[in-house]
Amino acid sequence: MNRRIVMDRGNVVKIAKTMNCTREMVSKALNFKKDSMLARKIRFVAKEQYGGIEIGNK
Fold it and tell me: How far, in Å, are 3, 15, 33 from residue 20 at the CA level?
């Protein structure tokens, strides 16, 4: 199984507005398709503030 962060659908839009980026960028970050500094911040915020759960292989 691929590594990803699972969370409620509405939170993706909230994170995009908070981080001043697109929903597509948030989606790619949560699915570990991007590994930039912004993507790392998005993953951190998703887990710490929005209750995201990381699943898959590390």
Answer: 24, 8, 19
Q: What whole-number distance in Å separates Cα of residue 39 and Cα of residue 15?
A: 11
CB-based contact 23:12 (threshold 8 Å): yes
Spatial neighbors of 5 by CB under 8 A, at least 6 apart, are 30, 31, 43, 46, 47, 52, 53, 54, 55
This prediction has a pTM of 0.91
In this structure, what DSSP letter does residue 4 have? E
Q: Specify the residue for token string 């962060």.
A: 5
Mean pLDDT for back-to-back runs of 10 residues, the chain (58 residues): 89 96 97 96 96 90
